[in-house]
């Protein structure tokens, strides 16, 4: 049986990847040591999701409590399975640019050194495997904030005649910008993934994601904006919007659509591929628009405030240009827009969040 290794297997993208590859006939080895609980508190723990995967998938899924910074442990795992490993989905990360500033060494060693450990183990023991990396649009730093945005009633927007109006592609420079420490550690990982593809001829890809989301997202204050926004709407917890009058724009991609992109790439892999990936023009919203949608779906008002202080390195506007990936993989389609994403988040989590709100947990 072919083996898929999924890092961050209890997280949003990791758990979606586990379910997909088990369904595709793989034995899936999941790597997750629940550092999300350390980063963002008990409510962000991935332990519950890991338990659900074990219960629903049985022996086809084998979770390991392993830190990707453990070079020897990663090497032993890959050596054990060798060339049976056909795909590696690397979704483990310290994912918050706010949190990274509190422990820069922790952030860098997870995001950069951990990625290097996985790449080297793949090269040594499973060189024919497809290596899929969940990168981030934060590799562009705050470069998107130099775009000539126009302020509309509920959002910032690019003029229709601007070259990036359909979305930002990989021609945007990553140099001479403020990245945040998180952005810097992800740049290091992103470039390593590309270099292993170019230098060693491995099948590697960096998916530079915008806002990745879905009902499995353990939304926390510093990470998981749509999930956390709906959680606050349902539970009554106060939400703070940081800067830009709430008109900053994000595109939003459901984890299931992202994993379908992973599957398409694995079916026809390339070397050192890089794609911006997100909801594009089909699935995007401003903070003000997201708040209105949450209130409409949850049928209750969000208790929120606007801070004049924007988060360091935060993007004023980001919409991904999906044309490059669609040209290479024309069968890939988006199946979720913002409303569909929020409705699913609400349907699958509202009851638990309401109980937490009542109990004060």
Short descriptors:
alpha/beta; seven-stranded parallel beta sheet; four-stranded mixed beta sheet; 12 helices; globular
Q: What do these coordinates show?
A:
By secondary structure, the protein is of the alpha/beta class. The protein is 42% helix and 18% strand. The protein is built from twelve helices and 15 strands. The strands form four sheets. Strands 3-2-1-4-5-8-12 form a seven-stranded parallel β-sheet, with helices on both faces. Strands 9, 11, 13 and 15 form a four-stranded mixed β-sheet that branches. Helix 1 packs parallel to helix 3 and helix 8 crosses helix 10. The longest helix is centred in the N-terminal third of the chain and has 22 residues. It is globular, with a radius of gyration of 19 Å. The mean pLDDT is 94.
């Amino acid at each position: 049986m072919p083996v898929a290794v999924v890092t961050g297997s209890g997280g949003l993208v990791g758990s979606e990847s586990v379910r997909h590859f088990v369904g595709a006939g793989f034995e899936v080895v999941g790597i997750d040591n629940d550092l999300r609980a350390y980063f963002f508190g008990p409510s962000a723990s991935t332990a519950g999701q890991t338990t659900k995967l074990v219960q629903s998938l049985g022996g086809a899924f084998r979770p390991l409590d392993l830190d990707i910074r453990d070079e020897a442990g990663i090497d032993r795992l890959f050596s054990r399975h060798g060339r049976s490993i056909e795909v590696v989905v690397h979704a483990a990360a310290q994912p918050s640019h706010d949190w990274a500033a509190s422990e820069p060494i922790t952030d860098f060693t997870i995001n950069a050194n951990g990625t290097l450990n996985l790449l080297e183990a793949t090269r040594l023991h499973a060189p024919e495997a497809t290596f899929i990396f969940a990168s981030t649009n934060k590799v562009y730093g705050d470069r998107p904030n130099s775009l000539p945005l126009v302020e509309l009633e509920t959002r910032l927007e690019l003029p229709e005649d601007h070259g990036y109006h359909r979305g930002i592609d990989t021609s945007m420079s990553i140099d001479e910008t403020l990245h945040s420490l998180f952005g810097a550690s992800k740049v290091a990982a992103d470039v390593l993934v590309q270099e292993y593809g170019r230098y060693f001829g491995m099948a590697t890809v960096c998916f530079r994601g915008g806002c990745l989301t879905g009902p499995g997202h353990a939304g926390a204050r510093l990470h998981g904006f749509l999930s956390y926004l709906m959680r606050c709407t349902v539970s009554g917890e106060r939400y703070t919007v940081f800067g830009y009058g709430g008109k900053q724009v994000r595109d939003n991609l459901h984890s299931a659509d992202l994993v379908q992109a992973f599957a398409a790439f694995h079916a026809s892999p390339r070397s050192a591929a890089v794609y911006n990936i997100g909801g594009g023009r089909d699935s995007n919203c401003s903070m003000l628009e997201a708040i209105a949608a949450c209130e409409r779906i949850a049928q209750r008002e969000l208790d929120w405030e606007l801070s004049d202080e924007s988060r360091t390195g935060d993007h004023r506007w980001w919409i991904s240009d999906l044309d490059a990936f669609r040209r290479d993989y024309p069968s890939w389609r988006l199946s979720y827009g913002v409303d569909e994403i929020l409705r699913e988040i609400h349907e699958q989590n509202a009851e638990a969040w309401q109980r937490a709100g009542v109990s004060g947990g």
